[in-house]
Design a protein that fits this description.
Elements: E1 2-7, E2 12-21, E3 24-34, H1 41-59, E4 63-67, H2 75-93, E5 98-102, H3 104-112, H4 119-129, H5 139-153
Parallel strand pairs: 1-4, 4-5
Antiparallel strand pairs: 1-2, 2-3
Helix pairs in contact: 1-2, 3-5, 4-5
Length: 164
């Protein structure tokens, strides 16, 4: 099964694409969709939508997994990223894809076995699980891969994580 993992964002949307074959994972691709801060919000959202659509067309994932948003203080940033996440979800839904979501805690537990793992521990495990020579960069792309791996490891329980 081909899985697209998304770390939602406005400036950087991290993505990771893996193939899940039984209990093993194969890296397909990873990277970021980047938008410049100086562009008007509608232009940034349009760019994200078009590039998400292109990504889906190119790699043809069967399912998509998103990291749930978590914001502590900055409401303005949360709203802008929420707009971007909505566009990212819409691009997937318009392609008929099933969408699943995972909290940061669920991702940390699935990747490292420890819910309070730091970013470096997650990146090292992603590298190990996907037999990569180096830690994937940038961080947002590594996060996208972690989301994809989390979904792959949760396939037997996927109805619990389906976005309604």
């Amino acid at each position: 099964m081909r899985i697209l993992g998304i770390d939602p964002g406005l400036a950087l949307v991290g993505f990771g694409i893996i193939d899940c074959i039984g209990n093993s994972y194969k890296l397909v691709d990873y990277g970021v969709i980047e938008t410049k801060a100086g562009l008007p919000l509608p232009s940034r959202l349009e760019k994200i939508y078009k590039l998400m659509d292109q990504l889906i067309e190119t790699y043809k994932p069967e399912e998509v997994a998103f990291e749930e948003l978590f914001f502590n203080k900055n409401v303005k940033t949360a709203i802008a990223v929420g707009h971007a996440r909505g566009v990212e979800i819409l691009a997937c839904k318009n392609k008929g894809l099933d969408i699943f979501e995972y909290t940061p805690l669920q991702i940390k537990q699935a990747i490292t076995g420890y819910g309070r793992a730091d970013k470096k521990q997650i990146q090292e495990m992603v590298k190990l699980l996907l037999n990569m020579e180096k830690i994937p960069k940038p961080d947002d792309a590594a996060d996208g891969l972690a989301v994809a791996i989390t979904h792959a490891s949760s396939l037997n329980f996927k109805d619990m994580f389906r976005m309604r």
